[in-house]
Structures are given as C-alpha cells and as structure tokens.
Specification:
The complex is a heterodimer of chains A (about 140) and B (about 80). Chain A is of the alpha+beta class and about 140 residues long. Chain A is about 45% helix and about 25% strand. Chain B is about 45% helix and about 30% strand. In chain B, strand 1 and strand 2 form a beta hairpin. The chains are: A alpha+beta (about 140), B alpha+beta (about 80).
Chain lengths: ~140, ~80
C-alpha cells in the first residue's frame, strides 16, 4: 500500500506521467498474492482468527501492536453483549446521540451480530497514513 | 479450555521476563476466590437486572473461547507478548 502511495505522490509531483503511474500500479497488483491464496490457507473456508495490526512510527521510534482474537471469542462476546439490560442500552444510545452518532443499539439483535461475525471472514481493512498503518483481517 | 498463559516482557535494559501460568492449577488454587467472585457477579447481575444464568453461561463460554488469543505490543526496544494456549 505504501508503494501505491509513493507512486501517487510521484504523480502528484509531476515526476511521472499518468500512464507510467498506471503501469507501476499494475506491476504492484501483479506482485500481490492473489486473494484466493488466503482462502486456500483455510482448509474449511472459515476464518479462525481476527487480526488487528497497527504499525506506527513516532519520533523515529517504531511501534507495533498485533492482536489476534479467536472468532470463537467474538461469538462468545456477542452472546454476552446480548444480555445488556435495555436501560443500559438506552443510556448508551443517549450518549451516542450526544456524540453525534445517532445509532439505536436496541435494534441490534444477537442473530444479526452472529451473521455479522460470519461475514467477517472476508473482511480486510487497510488504513495507510504517513506514519501509521492499520490492518484488520481474518485468517 | 485455556491450558497455559504465557507472557514475555522485554525491556531496553535487562533480560526479558518470561512467565508461564498453567491455567487449570491456578484456577484450582484460586477456586475459593473464584466462587466468591461468581457469587459477587450473580449479585451484580440481580442488582442491574441482568439474567443471572445466561450471563454466567456467557462468561463461561468467553473463558473457554480464550485459547488462541495473542497480544503483541512492541514500542522501540520494549515489548510485551501475551499468549493464551
């Protein structure tokens, strides 16, 4: 992802033409492992772990946070979250609204959360900042 | 059920500290305290109008789902790694 950003920076600075940028990006895409390789790594097609990896550099000091959470733990957590009493949800809703997030937590049903976790298999989130990279993925 | 908790703390100076905690013996040793904690949790559930049995069941499932959890934090030459097996 950083290579892609470098290419875009070079394009913005006028060091390369849009055609050259396109060719370079295509070359990076070719070098990337295909998505199917991840699926092949899972024999039964189900992801077992959710990974959150944060790489950052502060004052030239690299830091890294790498958390691996079993999907089973997420499911158990969802069941626990389903037991939150309605009055607590109402208070959480009020706080969310006050923070500018009008979200009704009472509408979230355990079945929906289960379905959400099932669909996490295919989730990949990449956030690239100059000093920070965040990756969330399942494997 | 989790069998082993390992922790490694690396500091810029000095040798890294490694800790292995066998979960089952620790749970057995701490069982009197755990019973008290369970009772306290049950009382807290009743006070906050949470169904006791499903809540304790969910907590039990959460505990059983812990194996495989790994937290690795590195900051410069310092690092903390916690793994549950």
């Amino acid at each position: 992802m950083n290579q892609r950003r470098d290419i875009l920076d070079m394009l913005a600075e006028g060091k390369i033409t849009p055609e050259e940028a396109e060719q370079l990006i295509a070359a990076i895409e070719r070098d990337r492992p295909p998505v199917t390789a991840i699926s092949e790594a899972r024999p039964n097609g189900k992801a077992k772990y959710l990974h959150v990896v944060v790489d950052s550099t502060e004052n030239d000091k690299p830091s890294r946070v790498n958390v691996r959470v079993p999907m089973q733990l997420l499911r158990a957590g969802v069941r626990l979250a389903a037991l939150i009493p309605p009055q607590a949800l109402a208070r959480a809703n009020a706080e969310l609204s006050r923070s500018g997030v009008p979200f009704d937590l009472t509408q979230l049903k355990p079945d929906q959360l289960e379905a959400l976790i099932e669909q996490l298999d295919e989730l990949t989130v990449d956030v690239d900042e100059p000093d920070t990279t965040v990756r969330v993925f399942c494997e | 059920m989790p069998q082993l908790l390992t922790a490694r703390v690396t500091r810029p100076q000095g040798r890294p500290i490694r800790i292995w905690v066998p979960v089952l013996p620790t749970v057995l040793v701490l069982s009197p305290l755990l019973i008290l904690a369970t009772l306290a949790a049950a009382v807290a559930c009743l006070v906050y109008h949470v169904r006791v049995v499903p809540a304790l069941g969910a907590g039990w499932r959460l505990f059983f789902a812990l194996p495989g959890t790994r937290i690795d934090i590195r900051d410069g030459r310092s690092a903390v790694l916690v793994s549950i097996w």
